[in-house]
Amino acid sequence: MEGIITKLEVQKKNKNRINIYIDDEYKFACDEEIVYRYKLTKGKKVDVKEIEDIAEEDNFIKGKNYAFRIIEKSYKTKSQVIDKLISRGYDEKIINKIMRLMEEYNLIDDKVYVKAYIKDNLSKQGKMKLLYNLKSKGIKEEIIQSELKNIDDNSLEEAAYNLAEKKYQQLIKRETDAFKITQKLSTFLLSRGYGYDMIKKVSRRLLEQQED
Asked: Is the domain of 89 the same as that of 56?
C-alpha cells in the first residue's frame, strides 16, 4: 500500500527521532538516520509497509543497544528500563520486544534485583522502607513481599540495634531527658522503616544495655 508523507515531526524529548505522518495520519517514529538514508521528505510517495518494517527493525536494534548500555552501568528493574526507553521515544511494540529478549537471556530480573537490594540495604533500612523504596522502582509488591519474608528476624533486629546505638550516642550529647531520648530514638527508627514492635524491643534492649 502506497501513501504520501504529509509531515515529519522532530520529537521533543529526543531530537534524533522523527515522527512520520502518512496521508495526514501518524504512522511510526524512527531514527533520523532512516529519514536521511531513504530520503523521506514531505510529499514523497512511499510503500508504507516497507518503510514501517525498515523503521521497526532499526528501532529494535537501536533500542536494544540502548537498553544494554543502561544495564551495563548498573543493574536496573524492568520498570526502570521501560521508563528509559519510553523517554527515548520508543513505542510499546518495540519496548515489549526488547524486554522479551532481555528476560529470555536473564539480563533483567526483578527478583534478582530485589534480593540484591535487600542484601545491600538491610543494615540501614527496615522492612517498611525496603518495601517503599522497591515499589518506587516499579517492582510488583508480591515480588518484594516474597523476598522480605525471607529476612531473618535476628538479622533485622541486629541491624536496627546497631542503628539505634549510633543514634543514641548522638542524642545523649545534647539531650539528658530519658523520655525525650526514647521518643527521638523511636522516631528515628520509624523513619528507617522499622515496625513498632521492633522499635520497642530494640529501644528496651538498648536502654537496658546502657544501665548495666
From this structure: yes
Number of folded domains that form the chain: 3
For residues 91 and 172, state if they share a domain: no
β-sheet with 25-31: strand ranges across: 25-31, 17-22, 2-10, 45-47
Q: Please tell me whether the overall predicted TM-score, pTM, comes out greater than 0.70 for this model.
A: yes
Q: Do residues 138 and 124 touch, judged by C-beta distance below 8 A? A: no
CATH number at residue 31: 1.10.10
Residue 5 burial (CB < 10 Å; 0-12/13-18/19+)?
buried
17 — phi, psi (to 5°)? -115, 140
Cβ 51 vs Cβ 65: under 8 Å: no
Q: For the chain, 212 residues long, give each residue's pLDDT as a single digit of tens.
A: 889 999 999 988 888 889 999 999 998 888 888 888 888 899 999 998 888 888 888 899 899 999 999 998 888 999 999 999 999 889 999 999 999 999 998 899 999 999 999 999 999 999 999 999 999 999 999 999 999 999 999 999 999 999 999 999 999 888 888 888 889 999 999 999 999 999 999 988 887 877 65
For residue 122, the enclosing domain spans: 110-148
